[in-house]
Each structure stands twice: as structure tokens, then as C-alpha cells.
Amino acid sequence: MEKKTTYLVMETHPAYAILLDNEGRFVKAANCGYERGDRLESAVLLRYPQDARAKRRRRIRMAVSLAACICLAIFGVEQYRYVFVPYGKIQMEINPGVEMEVSRSGRVVELNGTNADGKSLIDGYEYEGKDRYEVADELADRAIEMDYLANGGEIVITADAQSAKWVQVSEREIQEELEGHLAEYDISIVISTASEKMIQEETESITIPGPAQETQQSVQPSGEVDDGDSGYGDDSYGDNGYSGDSGYSDGDDAGDSGYDDDGDD
Amino acid sequence: MREGHEIIDKVYAAKSDPDAADSLIRQYMGFIRSETAKFLHRPPEEGRDEEFSIAMLAFYESILGYEKGRGVFLSYAARGIRNRLIDHYRKEKRHANLSSLHEPVEDDAETLKIDRLEDSKNHIQDLHDRNAAREEIDEFEKKLLEFGLSFSDVADNCPRQSRTFAACQKVLAAARLEPELLQEMINSKKLPMTALAAASGVEKKTLERHRKYLVAVLLAFTNGYEIIRGHLYQMSSSEGADKREGNRRGKSKQGRKNGEE
Prior knowledge:
By secondary structure, chain A is of the alpha+beta class. Chain A has 6 helices and 9 strands; from the N terminus they run ββββαβββααβαβαα. Chain B is 74% helix and 3% strand. The interface between A and B is large, with 36 and 50 residues.
């Protein structure tokens, strides 16, 4: 059971009385008409201003500490994401295909082989803690050592991420890095990026009609009249599966919208 | 302007001098009364309205807390009184469903409920007890003066943090186990800090900081202050409990040691 605090009045002043509580504390309290020697069961105690100030300071300190903790947590999460969370992928197609998952800081967080040769290329390779340039160089070295890459060979770099700028910059930087690194070998290897490859393929597939073809058309015999035949046989179109019937009935129900005219439903 | 400086000087003097504080409070009794009346919407009755006593306490708190940068003293004090009365009102509101003994009885507006209560107290005995307590407190005050201390000094120096208070209680417990330390204090009129720190295990710095309080409380436990000592039964019993607990632990530790041997 909780012991009740009682007070003994030790001294009185107009505004306050000095009391001794039964735990041994000397306290100042409101003097509600007390006299020396009175025993009290309750009192309105004085609040020392320095205690209030200390309390306020403690609250401020706690608030500042809390804010610092929150900032640290936010910064920590951001830093973790910057270093450890995959931001984009970089593929190296040597013939063995390998795919690096790269964080925003450029650190390789995951390395996978995209085919059997790729898996054997990265087998036993330690990529933890290395940046993308170092991994790219070392994988190229391993590919040469394991005879996957030889003179006249090609490496195609493909990057993928939400940011198009990051993709562009990563592809170019890895390309430059590999070009510089492989220059040490006495072999010729073409390093290209996916975008270069795509432009190259597009250039090869587009055929612009040249002046020779136009001349060929203009020297047709004058007696021949174009009968409007395109030159494709009827069969060329094949059967499109349509019989000419639209599928809608031409009968009595033509023009029937399907709604009841009575409108009583 | 000169009046403003004068009051500030008085306030600064009253911060450390209880007599100056009493004099300032008496001088501004009208102001305190008017601030209480503003809150109560009627003039306060001395000895009847607790709010007036609280307003005076708040004025004293304002004296202690005032600094020159806080504007005009009387505005500062008025704010302090109002805030303290609001706090008191809120606290009292929690007991709003209880009826007051100072309310008039239903059938007679002139008679208060307290007047109809049967008084079981023995007033003559109470008076004797109070007189005896007063004499003992007077004696205690004189003894404290020999150490150059007043009750006000002791109250201001009393530890308010529970951890520090517990440390001071530890010092008292150690001193009571070694009565020669109490005797040494009475003879030399000084607190034997080094011996007390060694006996209690409390830092000497803590003892120095609460020297005035420790002198008073140690003095209360010397011979001759039965009423004060009787009032401090909770302190003694809690120490006794601690000591008993300590002895019990010591014995069980010793028992284990013996068993191991």
C-alpha cells in the first residue's frame, strides 16, 4: 500500500511555508493559514523556476535528439539504397552472356550468367564490393583466358534502367573503360553498345530507291498499257476467311435495335 | 522609470533574502489581491480562499524566476499568478463531483456542512502536541543557526531529483550506523564529508552540493528531536527496509560462499 505523505510546518512566511515531509524533504508550499508545528496531509508545493527551465531544456534536448535520429535514419536508408539496392542492369554479350545488377553508386550487387557459357565465365568469380568498371574489365580478362574472346571478337554492352540518361551514360562509360583496358592486349576486339548496334542494323535494313530503278520504270515499252493489275495473283491475297457475309441477318429483324419497342420492360 | 528600476532591485534582493521577499510581498499584497479577484470575479477572502494563498505563492515564484530581459516585473508576475490559478483550477476540476465541506447545507444557507460534522478530535491534546512540536522546531532552528543555516536555506538546498535524494538518504543511513560521525559534526560544526563519502559510497561532489540539507537532516537524527524524528518515520522505515534488505542479501551471499567452501 502506498504510504501517504504528511507534512510538518517548520516555518511560515506571508507567501509560503517551509514544510518537512515524512520522507525527509524540506519543501516550500503555499501558506494557507498554517502555523509552525501544524501537521498537513496535502500542500500546494512551490515550483522552482530553475526546475522548469531544466525541464524545458530536457524537452528541447529530447526533441533535438529525436530529430537527429530521424535524420540519421533517413540518411541511412538513402545511403543503403544508394550503395546496396539495384538501380539498373548492364549486360555484356561476349558470347558468354553476363548480367550485372548495379546500384546507384556503381557497385555490382548481383552477377548472373544469362547462358551456359556465361555461367561458366562467372563461376568462382568474386564480384562483391567491386564497381562495374572493375567487374567489366575482369570479366573481359577471364573471357580471353577461357578462350571465349579472341582476335576479331565483339562485346556488346546493353544497359537497362528507368533513367534513359543513366542507360546512355553507363553504356558509353563501360565501352570506353573496356576499350582502354583491352588496348593492353595485342588483339582487336570491337566494343559496341546496344544503341550503336541498333542504329547499325536500322541503317542496313533501310533501302532507298535509287535513280536506276526510276529509269527502269520510265523505259517501259510504249505499246503496253497498264491494265491496273498490280502483278500479284489473286491467290497471293489468300483466303481471308471472310465469305462476304457480314454475319448480320438481312431478314426481318433488319433495323431491329434489340430493344423492345414497347418499352414496358 | 526610476520606480521600475527600484522594483527590479527589490526583486533581485528578494531572490536570495527571505526577509526582503516577505517585505516585497507585503508591499504588493494589493496587487496580488486584485489579480486573484480578476480570476475569481470577486474579492478573495483571506484565510478562506485557497486561491489567494496560491496567488501569493505564484508571486513568490515570479520573484525567483524573474530576469531583466523578461519585461516589466508586474506584468510578468500577473501572468505567473494567472497561469498558476488556472493550473489549480484544472486540478480542482478533477474533484468537481465531490462536495465541499465549506458549502452551505441545503435547508440553511448560513450554516456550512463542516459546522454540522461531529468533531472527534481532542483539541486540548492537539494543542499540547502542536506546542510541543513548535518548541522542538524552535530548538531545531536555533541549532541550525549555529551552523549558519536557516530553514529557507535548507529547503532551497534540498535535492529535488529522486536519484540525488536517494543518494542523500544513503548518506543519512551510513551516518546513523556510525554515531561518532554525527557527534563529530556537532562538535566541529562541519559536515565530515570525506568520512561520510567513504562510509556511504556517495560521491563527495554530491555531498558538497547538498551540504546544507544534509546538515539539517543529520541534525534531526541526533538526540533531542523526538517529534521531528517521529514525523520522519517513513524515511526511517524505508532506510530500515533497505538495510534489512542489504543484510539479507549479505547473509545469503555469505551463505553461498560458505556452501562453496
